[in-house]
């Protein structure tokens, strides 16, 4: 007789089948072709030309995604991506930031979107990932309220062209990094030290511009979804010293709450109300607040803060008390992502959220077998995805997870020296090599389990 042996039941999914998976990228970091087909100069082109990139490299070629996008979309499809969040290059579409539109720029994004859709992937477009057209910076940039109109016009142009196919729109990515690193510490373009008031102006004007962009998008395409993407990091004091506790509260207000409370509550954090009073005009908070459909969360670590006079807001980075670190000396703190998602549930009414960026740079290399074995990145991603699963189990309204990033790319002021990709890019030959982390991620997507 034939004996039929019982088979083990397949492990149950930790993520629902409609949970979306993929990666995020930024135009300036991957496209290259900075002087091709009518693209105008950005503040990052100027910053790079002035010698501020640590390894002396540039984004002139970067990953050459402008010419190799089909190959990159094929890698997404092969991994099983259901979503891809990318940014549009403002200088590629409106080279001067305002005025004449560049047809070839829009044609490139037509081709890219069509290729993404053909692969069965959901395109999610971000309008601004830090590449401000240089002519607008020359007129005051984000420190000036005059930027609101050009940004809303750019939003209208982009959604009019692509909104028939792209249904998810995010005007801003990480306005806190733009303000603090670009206009506070001078670590990023445009490389200014505008003081506390300058940082707050940049934050506030980005919020205003985003509010105007939301309305322009909805006026042009009423049925698309809109949201924003915030880099949120729980701010904790280095220790119980009163000055350090106060520093952590201040930094939480600057780093997390100006953007978050602005769009979700139409409010200014109490601790910053006096400083921001000269900036905020009647009607501003009503413009900033908007009923968004989705909130993207970029998470890398917690922030451990201490009182440090002379730095912006008299706050500096303290000892994170951590025993795991990335290749960029960032602490590895996966449980901070859970804390963040739970906070959004309890303090903000459990809005629809997704992880828009999460990843780590490590010094991985090609092994003699031709492969890239990156166990540290696999462990980093596994631990963070597990925290998303825990948050889902505890009722957090999380809809998706996007890794940062698909490709090694131009890592801003670090240049080409820091690698975040789950696919390695040889910057001499531009050859793409999927890493072990790419294969691990593809398996998570396939099974709906962390593993």
From TrEMBL:
Q: Which UniProt keywords apply?
A: Carbohydrate metabolism, Cellulose degradation, Glycosidase, Hydrolase, Polysaccharide degradation
Which biological process annotations from GO are given for this protein?
Answer: cellulose catabolic process
Stored InterPro entries: GH, GH_1_N_CS, Glyco_hydro_1, Glyco_hydro_1_beta-glucosidase
Residues annotated as catalytic: 174, 357
What are the EC numbers?
A: 3.2.1.21
Q: Which residues bind substrate?
A: 29, 129, 173, 300, 404, 411-412
Matching Pfam families, A to Z?
Answer: Glyco_hydro_1
MF terms (GO), sorted A to Z: beta-glucosidase activity
Any idea what this protein is called? Beta-glucosidase
Annotated organism of origin? Magnetospirillum molischianum DSM 120
Q: What's the encoding gene here?
A: bglA
């Amino acid at each position: 007789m034939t004996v039929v042996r019982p088979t083990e039941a397949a492990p149950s999914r930790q993520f629902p089948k409609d949970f979306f998976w993929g990666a995020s990228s930024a135009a300036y970091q991957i496209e290259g072709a900075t002087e091709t087909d009518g693209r105008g100069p950005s503040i990052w082109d100027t910053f790079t030309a002035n010698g501020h990139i640590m390894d002396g490299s540039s984004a002139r070629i970067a990953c050459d995604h402008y010419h190799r996008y089909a190959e990159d979309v094929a890698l997404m499809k092969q991994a099983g991506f259901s979503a891809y969040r990318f940014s549009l290059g403002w200088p590629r579409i409106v080279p001067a930031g305002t005025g004449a539109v560049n047809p070839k720029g829009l044609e490139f994004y037509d081709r890219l979107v069509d290729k993404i859709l053909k692969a069965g992937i959901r395109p999610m477009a971000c309008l601004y990932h830090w590449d401000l057209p240089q002519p607008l910076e020359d007129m005051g940039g984000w420190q000036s309220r005059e930027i609101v109109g050009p940004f809303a016009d750019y939003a209208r142009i982009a959604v009019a062209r692509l909104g028939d196919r792209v249904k998810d729109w995010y005007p801003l990515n990480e306005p806190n990094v733009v303000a603090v690193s670009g206009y506070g510490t001078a670590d990023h373009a445009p490389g200014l030290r505008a003081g506390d008031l300058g940082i707050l102006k940049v934050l506030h004007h980005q919020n205003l511009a985003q509010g105007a962009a939301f309305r322009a998008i909805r006026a042009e395409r009423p049925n698309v979804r809109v949201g924003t993407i915030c880099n949120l990091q729980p701010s904790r004091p280095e220790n119980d010293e009163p000055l350090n506790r106060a520093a952590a509260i201040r930094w939480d207000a600057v780093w997390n709450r100006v953007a978050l409370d602005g769009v979700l509550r139409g409010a200014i954090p109490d601790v910053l109300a006096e400083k921001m009073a000269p900036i905020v005009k009647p009607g501003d908070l009503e413009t900033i607040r908007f009923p968004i459909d989705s909130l993207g969360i970029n998470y890398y670590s917690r922030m451990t803060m201490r009182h440090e006079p002379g730095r912006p807001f008299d706050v500096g980075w303290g000892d994170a008390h951590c025993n795991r670190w990335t290749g960029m000396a960032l602490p590895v703190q996966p449980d901070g992502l859970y804390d963040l998602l739970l906070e959004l549930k309890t303090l903000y009414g459990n809005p629809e959220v997704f992880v828009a960026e999460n990843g780590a740079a490590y010094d991985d290399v090609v092994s003699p077998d031709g492969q890239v074995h990156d166990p540290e990145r696999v462990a980093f991603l596994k631990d963070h995805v597990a925290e998303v699963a825990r948050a889902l189990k505890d009722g957090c309204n999380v809809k998706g997870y996007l890794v940062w990033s698909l490709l090694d790319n131009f890592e801003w002021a670090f240049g080409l020296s820091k690698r975040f990709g789950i696919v390695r890019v040889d910057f001499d030959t531009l050859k793409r090599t999927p890493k072990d982390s790419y294969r691990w991620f593809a398996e998570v997507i396939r099974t709906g389990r962390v593993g």
